[in-house]
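Sharing a chain and its predicted structure for anyone who wants a worked example. Both blocks are below, sequence first, tokens second.
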Amino acid sequence: TLYFVAAKNKYATFDQTDLTAKWEGSGDNKLNIVWAEKVELNVGRETLTDQSVGLKLVVAQLVLKIKDAIPQNVGSFTTSGSDLSWTLDLTTMNGISEGVTNKLAATTEDKTIIGLTNQEIKTYTFVPASKKVGAVTFQAHTNENVLIKEYTVTDVQVEKGYRSIYSGWFFNNSGGFTFTYDTEWKGEYKFNF
């Protein structure tokens, strides 16, 4: 069995015993878009093979779409939940929950979104077999990590290759949140070796 993993970011830890791939941290090390596939291949000593491997998205994207203007004092956003996963089980291609609350950073270091409306703050999670990640909390912080605002959504469902979009008035609360699945992100990237 061969396991293929491709990621938009740089660093992952691979465990050959548990057959897992794990991303932790922030910056280049935070979880991002990941494709993977498991291929069963029978070869002998002198067998030469030509195999095409179609890698599939194995993450879901959680999106906080903020309808109101982003305040000047916002420095970062986080998405947190006890069943969000940074670890991929390569044998099942499902996410593994570590049983602790994972905070997935989505920073606003690009200050060009300050003052703008209808901005999308994106984070990624591996998808557990249940396709549920329980309650998810979106938070906005200052540069000094002081909480400005938070919103919690319960019973969040995710699916590989899908965007779960939470849209609403985040800072001024003059409205509500709606939940939709955006199926346009679904697709495959095929690479030949």
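Comments welcome. The chain has no helices and 16 strands.
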